[in-house]
Amino acid sequence: MGTNNFSILQINETSALIQFGNKIDKNINKKIRIFCAYLDENAFWGLIEYIPYFLGVSVIYNPLKIKSDEPFITVKLKLEEILSKLDFSCNYEEHIVEIPVCYGDEFGPDIKHVAEVNNLTVEEVIKIHSQGEYLVYMIGFAPGFPYLGGLSEKIYTPRRESPRIAIPEGSVGIAGTQTGIYPIETPGGWQIIGKTPLKLFDLNSKDKTLLKCGDIAKFYPISYDEYLNLKEKI
Amino acid sequence: MMSITVLTPGILTTIQDTGRYGYQKYGVIVSGAMDTYALRLSNIMLGNNENEGVLEITLIGPSLSIKKGNLIAITGANLSPTINGKKVPMGRPIYLNEDIVLKFGKCISGCRSYLSVAGGFDIPISMGSKSTYLRAKIGGKDGRALKKDDRLELGDKSQLSLSIIGKLKEFSKEESFSAAKWYMKNIMLPSSDVTVIRVFEDSQFKYVNEGSINEFFSAIFNIDAKSDRMGYRLNGPKIEFKENIEMISGEVSFGTIQIPPDGNPIILLADRGTSGGYPKIVHVASFDIQKLVQLKPYDKVQFKKITLKEAEMLYLSREKDIEKLKRSVKLISI
């Protein structure tokens, strides 16, 4: 696929999908970020919002504001015009977000299981997990929940057979080949290995979410006391 | 200060508007009314902004104490509303000549009723919307469903609302309320035993097994009891695919029908997630969503295929009708 290859599909009466590829890939994520950054600065008349996903971006519009008997065709032409002039080869500044995690014990009840499944010690699991660099492919599922790529295969662990009824906010987990952080208390089947005192979603902050599509997340271990200290400050 | 007091809350009464747009990229779901058409009508007929927050009332309604001088309207499901024991006509402005108690009773048709109040609810706007997002405790009344003794403050009435009130005040004041003679008929309520819902294909439709396609469009599905604002689960023939599709979380919308591994379709609704990971087969035409969301558990539904182009035309014709309704309300009232 060349640099400017994309397809534009109509999804429904009010949205279009721009697809940049068909597999999870860093370069596709980069194109998505460049396109979204352009829309942030240059929203077109009738645009309601855009949502980045792994493979593309969905664009929701108000067909009445598009002022056309064929709103989708008009939006498609507009998007093609935008996409044809964007420079997808430009360098993009990496934004690294460091996330403190108190691993194991009561905050990470499944860390021993993750270690056993992979023939590792708990310390090795912590070391491997906190040495990784994780690309935020998209935010979804719950406010501020990051879909992270880059988990080491040394600690891949299947989901729990029976999901927990409530996983506390801030819990860091592993599910198969993914790692993630629960922004709000929800039921879930992830293997929980630790907890961060940081808020993944804050309604009152300018950015709303700690992590954004295209950010690099890094974890670093902290002690229980450090966790409590940080928690108090937040 | 105008306000409404909750005497009993009903099973699920929440404040909703047309939804929270612009924040899905942060993982914040749209929420909003299930039946946005009924919600918009309820606001338009009172002279409110059509997106104003109203009460979405589910199956078993609340009882509410409302002060005199207010203008209210009820649209959507007919849950036998009464004011001080007297039947209230639906789909039209109702002016309250005295302090009243509004109650709901037997469910006659549909399952979600909308109660709008001129001036709307004076609650904080959270990320551009008054809609209640229950799981994240965002919006509405403290991010939750209404409960006993809640007091809902009301906002200032528009000029158009005051004109409507002016007209209604000319009627008899001996009754506890004065209802407008004109009304907006809610044509969208399901009226037959099997409700036909029009759908159009998703790009993944081509992966559906030939036999499943025939079954999907000929079978009658039942709405499962575990259905809610997030989605309707359907019981009927299981949908199978020609091959295994590798699924990567992607876009979903109001009315997307996805197929989880057990083969039973799920229709995603107002409280759907911002993304989904199951294969999608079709989407409900926006025009028919209002009919769909008024169905109750165990109701029957059948799907009819149309093209996306046809769905788009239906959508545009509906929006033009709503514009006409807005103009009519102004003409009648001023």
Walk me through the topology.
The complex is a heterodimer of chains A (234) and B (334).
Chain A: E1 7-12, E2 15-19, H1 26-41, E3 47-52, E4 56-61, H2 63-66, H3 71-85, E5 96-103, H4 111-117, H5 122-131, E6 134-139, E7 146-149, E8 164-167, E9 171-175, E10 178-181, E11 186-188, E12 191-195, E13 216-221, H6 224-233
Parallel strand pairs in A: 5-13
Antiparallel strand pairs in A: 1-2, 2-4, 3-4, 5-12, 6-7, 6-13, 8-11, 9-10, 9-12
Chain B: E1 3-8, E2 13-16, H1 36-44, E3 54-58, E4 63-66, E5 71-78, E6 82-83, E7 86-87, E8 94-96, E9 100-103, E10 109-117, E11 151-153, H2 159-169, E12 177-179, E13 194-201, H3 210-218, E14 221-223, E15 231-235, E16 256-258, E17 266-268, E18 280-284, H4 286-292, E19 300-305, H5 308-333
Parallel strand pairs in B: 13-19
Antiparallel strand pairs in B: 1-4, 1-11, 2-3, 3-10, 4-9, 5-8, 5-10, 6-7, 6-9, 8-12, 13-18, 14-15, 14-19, 15-17, 16-17, 16-18
